[in-house]
Design a protein that fits this description.
It contains twelve helices and twelve strands. The chain has a nine-stranded mixed sheet with strand order 1-2-3-4-5-6-7-8-9. A three-stranded antiparallel sheet has the order 10-11-12, with no helix packed on it. Strand 3, helix 7 and strand 4 form a beta-alpha-beta unit. It is globular.
Length: 344
């Protein structure tokens, strides 16, 4: 089975009718489409109500851009001092060696930047990006993202990791990837070995949004990483119609922890163009996250965050459980909703 890269491929795979293909043709012309053979097999016979289908198959709703939505919703361009680097926080940078992905999520905040033919760093540009990190001793962590860095060859990954490990001020290299749940066979022993080097700690953050993505194949890919001693985190986007109910999030976060993946961030969807149909309100997200407290182990609890538009970084988005009582103390709410006084 071949990968799908167009509307006609999706029609041939039975994921869109010919009429459905016509309805999303303009969407697919603007925003990249790709599903791996692995996902095409998993989605056989699925429709829009399937939580995986909704994440990958284009819909007519993407043709509407809400007034508040942006081409660069988290300000990558504004915070990019050299090509391939985003320097938003003092002690860490993003390194983006490529803008291609194995799959293209329909809610992606970089959807205007990624896709076939998207810029990949040349050898000279990669050297310049690495030189930027080398010249900034305050940079302790390098987040390798894109695009999906797990599409790089093991040789290229080895070069990046060893170059960073040679910089005494770099302590952590973190890879952000969708590959373990979108194309798990790509997570080979050779790729895993390429992620590691002396004098630097390598971490992997896996983007996964629903427990159905934790198939036997995906669990095997995660195990190959964990068994190699690489700590695993997850990033999840809160999506209407995919995971915006407590049982769905509970199953996902428990499934991740059972596979040695620490839930790290639950992202409120960014203001990316054509994604308003995926975005709950902040109040809805806050209520949902609050409902998990006390019913889900702390080990399974990610931090609910939103990226401030314009490149100003992430902010915790959960509601406060503690309020001043006006008398020098505080009122604390427990997971049942009962309120208790704390303090003098």
């Amino acid at each position: 089975m071949k990968a799908a890269h167009s509307v006609s491929d999706l029609v041939d795979a039975g994921l869109l009718t010919p009429e459905g293909g016509e309805a999303v043709a303009r969407v697919a012309d603007r925003y990249a489409v790709a599903l791996t053979p692995y996902l095409l097999d998993k989605l056989a016979g699925a429709g829009p109500s399937d939580p995986l289908y909704a994440q990958y198959v284009p819909s007519p709703e993407e043709g509407y851009t809400a007034p508040e939505e942006r081409a660069d919703p988290i300000g990558d361009v504004a915070r990019s001092p050299v090509k391939g680097i985003v320097h938003r926080y003092p002690d860490r940078v993003l390194l983006k060696p490529l803008h291609a992905c194995a799959v293209y999520c329909r809610f992606c905040f970089r959807r205007e930047m990624v896709g076939p033919g998207g810029d990949a760093l040349s050898n000279a540009e990669l050297d310049e990006a690495l030189a930027y990190v080398r010249a900034h001793a305050e940079v302790w962590e390098v987040v390798v993202t894109g695009g999906d860095p797990f599409l790089l060859s093991p040789r290229r990954l080895t070069h990046i990791v060893r170059s960073l490990s040679d910089m005494p001020h770099v302590g952590v290299v973190r890879f952000h990837t969708r590959v373990p749940v979108a194309d798990p066979a790509r997570v080979t022993d050779e790729l895993v070995a390429a992620l590691k080097a002396e004098d630097v700690a390598s971490w992997v953050a896996v983007h996964v949004n629903h427990a159905d993505e934790l198939t036997p194949e995906a669990r095997g890919a995660l195990a190959r990483l964990a068994d190699a001693g690489i700590p695993l985190l997850s990033q999840t986007v809160l999506l209407k119609g995919v995971n915006d109910e407590a049982p769905a999030l509970e199953a996902l976060f428990r499934g991740l922890v059972r596979n040695r993946v620490k839930p790290y961030y639950l992202h409120h969807p960014d203001l990316a163009a054509g994604t308003s149909h995926f975005r709950p309100t902040l109040a809805e997200g806050q209520a949902l996250v609050k409902s998990l407290r006390g019913h889900l182990s702390g080990l399974c609890q990610p931090t609910y965050v939103l990226d401030i538009p314009g490149g100003h970084g992430k902010a915790p988005a959960a509601t406060s459980w503690i309020e001043p009582d006006g008398e020098g103390g505080h009122v604390v709410e427990d997971f049942t909703g009962a309120r208790h006084r704390y303090g003098p």
